């Protein structure tokens, strides 16, 4: 209860300060007119401080990137994360997956973020989470003013939540929504399909869940990257690396694996132990009737 009280007090102060920000007229990154009423940040910011923005995904579409209205161009957001979910039920920071790291925008302007691969989902939409840098308190508009995102009050903004610890959320109220402009492509172009966070009752270990191939880390990489995957049930799998011509470069794993999470490492070498050239490769996981692909970029 003490932690909850501390969280509530901090959030009330942050919202009271932020929503008094003077209005900022702006134009969206796609050239359309979008009035940004001001910017909204946190005070203070801690390790897990973040915001979550609900982005409905149209049927047959995938999220390829987005523009957001940024306050301070000198701020570096450590991570932007995504996860499939349900409206009005934001995922926690630990449930979401890192899709971009060390992201910067422009001061008091629309800024663009491109995903390394388009992301589709098996739910109504995706949560986009910005993790704030520790100590970057919002204290003023513009450069040097700290981490903050634009908001709109005319009903055109996207539903959002703000959190001190990445778990407990305070929703933006009324017509207030985050100033964000998603960019969609066909779901056929999606490399990653998100199934949604797997939640277990408190104190219990999560089940095996869906068969998934998670984002490789790091990516781009040099000299090695971790390939993490999850199996819904025990069975035979094949995990291999292919080049852009569809030729198999390296067999990473082959055999019967237990249900649950697994991790393998590719060190940028072929089956003969030779280092491969810089460029784009694909990790392909085959498990029963399921085949999943992950785009990799090797930079020498």
Can you describe what's shown?
This protein is mainly beta and 300 residues long. The protein folds into two domains: 2-193, no CATH class; 208-298, Immunoglobulin-like, CATH 2.60.40. The chain has one helix spanning 2-18; strands at residues 38-41, 50-56, 61-70, 76-85, 97-104, 109-121, 125-131, 148-152, 160-163, 170-171, 177-178, 180-186, 192-194, 212-213, 225-231, 235-242, 248-257, 260-266, 279-287, 290-298. Strands 5-4-7-2-9-10 form a six-stranded antiparallel beta sheet. A four-stranded mixed beta sheet has the order 12-3-6-13, with no helix packed on it. The longest helix is centred in the N-terminal third of the chain and has 17 residues, at 2-18. Mean pLDDT is 83; it is low at 1-27, 29-33 and 199-207.
**From N to C, what is the helix and strand string?**
HEEEEEEEEEEEEEEEEEEEE
> Would you report the number of β strands?
20
**Beta-strand percentage?**
35-45%
What is the share of helical residues? under 10%
Q: What gyration radius follows from the Cα positions, in whole Å?
A: 21 Å
Please outline the helices and strands:
Layout: H1 2-18, E1 38-41, E2 50-56, E3 61-70, E4 76-85, E5 97-104, E6 109-121, E7 125-131, E8 148-152, E9 160-163, E10 170-171, E11 177-178, E12 180-186, E13 192-194, E14 212-213, E15 225-231, E16 235-242, E17 248-257, E18 260-266, E19 279-287, E20 290-298
């Amino acid at each position: 209860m003490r932690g909850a009280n501390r969280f509530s007090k901090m959030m009330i102060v942050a919202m009271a300060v932020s929503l008094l920000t003077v209005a900022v007229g702006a134009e969206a990154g796609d050239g359309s007119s979008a009035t940004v009423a001001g910017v909204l940040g946190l005070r203070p910011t801690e390790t897990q401080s973040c915001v979550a923005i609900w982005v409905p995904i149209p049927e047959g579409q995938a999220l390829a990137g987005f523009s957001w209205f940024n306050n301070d161009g000198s701020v570096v957001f450590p991570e932007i994360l995504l996860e499939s979910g349900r409206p009005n039920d934001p995922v926690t920071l630990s449930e979401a997956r890192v899709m971009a790291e060390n992201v910067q925008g422009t001061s008091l302007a629309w800024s663009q973020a491109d995903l390394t691969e388009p992301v589709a989902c098996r739910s109504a939409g995706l949560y986009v989470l910005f993790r704030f840098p520790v100590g970057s308190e919002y204290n003023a508009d513009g450069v040097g003013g700290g981490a903050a995102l634009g908001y709109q009050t005319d009903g055109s903004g996207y539903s959002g939540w703000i959190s001190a610890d990445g778990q407990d959320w305070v929703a933006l109220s009324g017509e207030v929504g985050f100033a964000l402009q998603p960019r969609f492509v066909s779901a056929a172009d999606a490399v990653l399909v998100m199934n949604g966070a797997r939640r277990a009752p408190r104190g219990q270990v999560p089940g095996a869940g869906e068969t998934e191939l998670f984002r490789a880390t790091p990516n781009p990489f040099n000299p090695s990257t971790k390939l993490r995957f999850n199996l819904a049930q025990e069975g035979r799998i094949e995990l291999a690396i292919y080049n852009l011509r569809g030729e198999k470069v390296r067999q990473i794993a082959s055999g019967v694996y237990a249900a649950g999470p697994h991790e393998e490492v590719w060190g940028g070498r072929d089956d003969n132990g030779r280092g491969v050239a810089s460029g784009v490769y694909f990790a392909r996981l085959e498990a029963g009737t399921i085949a999943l692909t992950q785009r990799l970029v090797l930079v020498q």
